[in-house]
Amino acid sequence: KAFPSGKKDLKSTVKFADVAGLEQAKAEVVEFVDFLKSPGKYEKLGARVPKGGLFVGPPGTGKTLLAKAVAGEADCPFYSMSGSDFVEMYVGVGASRVRDLFKQARDSAPSIIFIDEIDAIGRKRGKGGFTGGNDERESTLNQMLVEMDGFNSSTGVVVLAGTNRVDILDNALLRPGRFDRQIAIDRPDMAEREKIYMVHLKPLTLETGLKQEDVAKRMAALTPGFAGADIANVCNEAAIFAARRAATSVSMEDFERATERVIGGLPKNNSLMS
Ligand code: ATP
């Protein structure tokens, strides 16, 4: 096929334990996991299960990770695509990719579809003639709405999506029976950063005498405003610094240098004090 529709990561091995912090969000997605594990239970009861969940939060805060964890906990296939893949696409291709992706997901239900950066296709539609060139995006969005409206509890597909701009989303997406459940994914506070460090320090070999707990605490205090992705980055960079100086273990100095490197790479408008 010329245009593969979405990416299929057949087995997600991510579990809730791999997602540090985000306790409130995890509590809110447990219901999706239960539904995916036993859709029949809900169908029998005549319960209407939410079809879609929208993860709202800044980049790198774990939206994709949490969606994968839902799939991992439910032990079901994970299909993903990014809204930005649809920008500047040939007419009709976006809609047909959406159709294909939903078909694959339905055929292997129970399953999960995750749409990252949904704002790229789901932005508010133009009200007049001055928003030229949006036809393709609109037909992609329309196809997605058609697919979601065709679901019911027996379909066994849950659609999750991520955005950092819920304010620009088309209201049609937020209507009942679509992405009617919003789940806030915030930047981690100090205690949460510490937990995220603990996850990403695990694979590292630390210098003798350096305890994971102490490094996590110290680094959490040193990196206000960091999202989970930045933290993963710092830990990896620190290990690379250690490798570069031909050391067999990672030192506190490696972490400090890695922090500077990661801060240097952050966008200028990133408020480190938030
Ligand atoms: P974007 O909006 O840019 O797509 P995102 O919110 O989907 O970002 P993820 O892709 O889930 O962010 O996060 C990137 C990586 O950062 C993850 O693969 C993981 O390594 C790390 N990470 C982010 N949040 C957490 C967390 N809460 N716990 C552990 N690791 C995290």
Q: What do these coordinates show?
A:
With 274 residues, this protein is α/β, with parallel strands linked by helices. The chain contains 11 helices and 6 strands. Helix 4 links the parallel strand 3 and strand 4. The chain starts with 6 loop residues before the first strand and ends in a 9-residue tail after the last helix. It binds adenosine-5'-triphosphate. The site of adenosine-5'-triphosphate has 18 residues, from helix 3, helix 8 and helix 10. It is found in: Mitochondrion membrane. This is AAA+ ATPase domain-containing protein. In the N-terminal section; belongs to the AAA ATPase family.
Span of the ends, CA to CA: 45 Å
Low-confidence stretches: 1-5
Number of strands: 6
Structural class determined from secondary elements: alpha/beta
Helix content: 40-55%
Structure annotation, total helices: 11
The largest sheet, given as strand count, sense and whether it forms a barrel, is: 6 strands, mixed
Instruction: Please trace the helix and strand order, writing H or E for each element.
Output: EHHEHEHEHHEHEHHHH
Average pLDDT over all residues: 87
Anisotropy-based shape: globular
Order of strands in the sheet with most strands: 1-3-4-5-2-6
Radius of gyration: 21 Å
Bound molecules: adenosine-5'-triphosphate
Percentage beta strand: 5-15%
Family: In the N-terminal section; belongs to the AAA ATPase family. In the C-terminal section; belongs to the peptidase M41 family.
Organism: Cladocopium goreaui
Domain AAA+ ATPase: 49-189
Subcellular location: Mitochondrion membrane
